[in-house]
Amino acid sequence: MQIPSIGLGTFRLQGQQVVESVRNGLTAGYRHIDTAQIYGNEADIGPALEASGIPREDLFITTKIWIENMGAGKLVASLEESLDKLRVRQVDLALIHWPSPADAVPVAETMHALMQARERGLTRLIGVSNFTVAHMQQAIDAVGAGNIATNQVEIHPFLQNRRLAAFARSQGIHLTAYMPLAYGRVMQDPIVRKIAARHRATPAQVALAWLLQQGYAVIPSSTKMDNLRSNLAALELRLTEEDLAQIKALDRNERIADPGFAPEWDA
Fold this sequence. Notes:
This protein is an alpha/beta fold and 267 residues long.
């Protein structure tokens, strides 16, 4: 089972706003919806998916286990609660949202609990998010690389995470890029804008196509139908080697998601 190349992110979307985003996204053609326990919107997304009338087997639903639920005695029950909110019997992908702060809960304990959730049929695939190379290695040691469907991490032209990407590639682990548009900053970058003009595309499409051509999945977020449809069109855009080289030169380790409990990032 493959993770769709492009999905709809729902971070920071609440209440009617997330309902409209999901509704518009499904109408535009999205079938992958990404959420998380900490987003506080699973209970809004569930009814929106149900009301869409789209068969469950045509949807791909991802949620993420919050740091308070990573222990062996909490993880499965927390995922069951997420399923209730999402109004489904099973998600397609369950991720560990962050490594345990200060490594208080061992990665092996969490990964084994996640495997147990999969064995119980609560999720089809399992994976991780915001894992560094060191944390990925611990996860591999615990359950094997073949059981890790993806590592969802921040990647965009200004934060290219090359060391992590190289390690993931060496282990055959897929990456999903969140914040792929750097919260709109790519739309203002002159290099990205010039590339977009050459292709008669939008800067957002360029940033997404750059990620897609590297084999990553992307989960941009939007509530506007025009933007949702435009982002999907990135699937048809092919950048040249010159384009790719110019975007590569934009890397400046500009990280946006960096909470106080974050791990020590790879250089």
